[in-house]
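If you are new to this repository, start here. Below is one unmodified record pulled from the training split, so you can see the exact layout before writing a loader.
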Amino acid sequence: MTAWGGMVVLIACFSAIFAPLLTPHSPLDQNLAYRLQPPGWRDPEGKMHLLGTDQLGRDVLSRIIHGSKVSLIVGTTAVVFGGLLGLVLGLISGYFGRWVDDVIMRVVDIQLSFPFIILALTIIAIFGSSLFNLILVLAITGWVIYARVVRASVLSVKEMDFVKAARAIGASNFKIILRHVLPNVLSPFFVISSFQVARFIITEASLGFLGLGVPPPTPTWGNMLSDGREYLQEAWWIGTFPGMAIMFVVLGINLLGDGLLDALDPDTYLKL
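And here is the target side for that same chain:
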């Protein structure tokens, strides 16, 4: 199943990178004469619309392929920024402890007390709806899980003999964290990151569905779902195929993350 998940992720990444070459039509071209055509329909020029057209005559398949670019950019970029912030704060909190730990963990508690949708509405209302602001929202809300997990790992690692030995010979705190603590907390960090990418893809689609994501005419899976809900009876394909794209990509990422969890689990090596 892990191999299947990796294949799905590779296909999604390939589609996002080479979207302009793979799409049979422009995702932005509108033609009201071609609106709400079913999957497999051919236009008067003989060009096939494999997944049909939407309410404005745009090719659904082309918009799904271009939408994968937005979803993967948002998911991976938000994980990079949020993950790095959470990693740094988790290392500082777990290693130094005392009042530093108290301050950082109280910030985490405050962050978790805010409903996500309220925070998203606030940021987007102040700064406007854009790709950058969407990534900012996800990064701000996503760092707390990294901070908590990394802090818990650091609390365990810093009590091990090799860390105490490094401290005894006079190694600086920065050197101990960088050379001895950090490498031993990266396994859970990478596992969380894989699952967070899937979570952020769903979140981006949810915000797009609510009108809080990347504004039109940029094609995103969330915007396509929002458009399709008005035509479920007469044109089911507008919302169904983007929903299936989200389902398969998120499932593939989760399966890949599950395989990564097994590969990085210390018990796995003990069984070999």
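Two things worth knowing about this chain: The two ends are 20 Å apart (CA to CA). The chain has one domain: 2-8+72-271.
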